[in-house]
Amino acid sequence: MEFNQRLFQFITRIIFYVMLIILIISLIYPHTSLYFRTSLFSPFTSKLNSEDVILTPGETFRLRVYRINKKATYWSTDFKVCNVSINGILKAKRVGTAIIKVKIERRVLKCRVRVIRINKSSIIIRSKKTEVLKIWGIRSRVRWSSSNPFVASVNLRGKVTAKKRGKAIIKARVKGKKLTCVVIVY
């Protein structure tokens, strides 16, 4: 009797852990690059011109379907972040992530759109003071630089240090996208 009870507990634990793993994978998988990866491209199938797009609010991007002679239907999973027209023109609205889906007959193609922005577009700061800049909407390495490091310098984490009177432009590069912040030191 005790053996049957232990066996039952063992089996229920295995089922619990398998279900937990399936739940975790189903929550994480759509946010990985594997979700967007397609198999080898065949010349007889359709393909999007981009599967991962980074935009800033107000910016547009034309999403095209290659090697197709059929009607394509576009829609966004989050129209508050990024809207898409019937012609495939994406318009970024606010910070966040949206998936643009394109339906061609029975096939659905996907494109991830990440809308990013810098937390401050301009700073007026006193000499010898600091201010921190951040990029909202993406968790990726940011490369910071200053147009005039003698006026205002920036470190690897986006901390701006005012040095002397003047004007400098702080530039942030994220996956090929450039964002700027004007710094005026008084």
From TrEMBL:
Q: Which UniProt keywords apply?
A: Membrane, Transmembrane, Transmembrane helix
Q: Does the keyword Transmembrane helix apply?
A: yes
Q: Name one Pfam family in it.
A: Big_2
Q: Which Gene3D superfamilies match?
A: 2.60.40.1080
Segments spanning the bilayer are 7-29
Describe the location of the BIG2 domain by residue ranges: 140-182
Q: Which InterPro entries match?
A: Big_2, Invasin/intimin_cell_adhesion
- UniProt KW Ribonucleoprotein keyword: no
Protein name in the entry: BIG2 domain-containing protein
UniProt organism field = Anaeromicropila herbilytica
